[in-house]
Write a structure and sequence with these properties.
Blueprint lengths: L4 H12 L17 H11 L7 H14 L3 E5 L2 H11 L7 E5 L5 H8 L3 E5 L10 H11 E4 L2 E4 L5 E5 L11 H11 L2 E5 L7 E2 L2 E2 L6 E5 L12 E5 L2 H10 L24 H11 L2 H19 L5 E3 L6 E2 L5 E5 L4 H13 L5 E2 L19 H6 L3 E4 L10
Parallel strand pairs: 2-3, 2-6, 6-7, 7-10
Antiparallel strand pairs: 1-11, 4-5, 5-6, 8-9, 8-13, 10-11, 12-14, 14-16, 15-16
Helix pairs in contact: 1-10, 1-11, 2-9, 3-9, 4-5, 6-7
Protein name: Perosamine synthetase
InterPro entries: DegT/StrS_aminotransferase, LegC-like, PyrdxlP-dep_Trfase, PyrdxlP-dep_Trfase_major, PyrdxlP-dep_Trfase_small
Keywords: Aminotransferase, Pyridoxal phosphate, Transferase
């Protein structure tokens, strides 16, 4: 029997139950001290980029992830931008990134004046495929004076940015080995993966730097926000300096010693984040329970499966993803139309970055998997509050 959009709709409803109102893809959950902490900021007047909650949020986030330092910023894109700068990425150098990612991954590279270079993903993780990457680098690059040079463009390849898609960690161990062999800096795009681990190491903690997002649709939210995480004390000091307009400490004078950025997270947002971090284990556990229900129910549906975490990985299951057995744009569009018109928000994966008009001329390896997956992936409702069913 051929898979139909109605089968998919029916299976989703069997997991989450019937809802009178529209079901978002992922909505925030506020059930803790959010209002108490935010009200304290308002009552005391500390609502901008200075305040006790910013320091507390950075300290508690670093402890949760298992790194020495966290620097809170206004969003995940800002975190990526500064991370790339601090990793030494310079104008006209190349940065290897997956084409399956939110556009911020490529935009942050472009902000540095650097060149995004698109890499194929693994069907096992939906992130950068370390084996294909090494084969590709062996074909298109050479080493000179400790640098990896693209023999086609003549540009230095400076860094790799693995993105942990939908909260599922990339296979980091072989990827880090490739980075070491080719002298590449690893900056983790962990925007979606707070609460995810790879071989008991938290996503974002394995590269030189990691970038986290606290957008309203993430596992925990600060309304809008992000963070740079690292074990390097000097990099953390520099990150805080650059994101605070590079202003030197002084009682009254405004002295800035380099071009900086007004990227610091406001105290009001950090207060919200502190309350959310107190609940993160509950959020992740509920999301994982929902994920397991989806896995079980979709096993009986031919032609589609739920993307599952791999051995050695514990995903936060940020967004559950259906994978059609074959690329099928017609069926994919039918599913999206039927589910959304029936009050269940679903979405396709992002348009592959190498197909966007501003990035079509950027270097890339062959991306057949990526181009197929754009017509196979469907994200389905994944909020931690969806524990119903029938």
């Amino acid at each position: 029997m051929n898979l139909t959009s109605h089968q998919i709709l029916k299976t989703i409803k069997r997991v989450i139950g019937d809802h009178e109102s529209f079901v978002p893809l992922h909505e925030p959950t506020f059930g803790g001290n959010e209002w108490i902490y935010v009200k304290e900021c308002i009552d005391e007047g500390w609502v901008s980029s200075v305040g006790s909650y910013v320091d507390r949020f950075e300290r508690e986030l670093a402890e949760y992830i298992g790194v020495k330092h966290a620097v809170a910023v206004v969003n995940g894109t800002a975190a990526l931008h500064i991370s790339l700068l601090l990793a030494g990425v310079k104008s006209k150098e190349e940065v290897l990134i997956p084409s399956i990612s939110f556009v911020a991954t490529a935009n942050a590279v472009t902000y540095c004046g650097a060149v995004p270079h698109f890499i194929e993903v693994s069907t096992e993780t939906l992130g950068i495929d370390p084996n294909l990457l090494e084969q590709y680098l062996n074909d298109i690059s050479y080493r000179k004076d400790g640098q990896t040079i693209n023999r086609i463009t003549g540009r230095i390849i400076r860094a790799v940015v693995p993105m942990h898609t939908f909260g599922h960690p990339v296979d980091m161990e072989p990827l880090l080995e490739v980075c070491q062999r080719y002298g590449l800096v690893c900056i983790e795009d962990a925007a979606e993966s707070l609460g995810s681990t790879y071989k008991n190491q938290h996503a974002g903690s394995m590269g030189l730097l990691g970038a986290i997002s606290f957008n309203g649709n993430k596992v925990t939210t600060t309304g809008g926000g992000g963070a740079i995480v690292t074990n390097n004390t000097e990099i953390a000091r520099k990150a805080k300096h650059l994101t605070t307009t590079a202003k030197l400490p002084h009682k009254w004078a405004f002295i800035h010693d380099e071009v900086g950025y007004n990227y610091r997270m406001p105290n009001l947002n950090a207060a919200l984040g502190c309350a959310q971090l107190e609940q993160i284990d509950t959020f992740v556990n509920k999301k994982r329970a929902l994920y397991k229900k989806y896995v079980q129910e979709f096993k009986s549906v031919e032609g589609v499966l739920l993307f599952e975490e791999k051995t050695g990985v514990r995903s936060n299951c940020w967004l559950n993803a259906l994978i059609l057995d074959q690329p099928n744009k017609l069926l994919l569009d039918e599913v999206l139309e039927l589910t959304n018109s029936n009050g269940l928000m679903t979405r396709p994966v992002w348009t592959p970055l190498h197909l966007l008009p501003m990035y079509q001329d950027m270097p890339s390896m062959p991306l057949m998997r990526t181009e197929q997956l754009q017509y196979q992936i469907i994200n389905i409702p994944s909020s931690p509050s969806l524990t119903g069913g029938r």
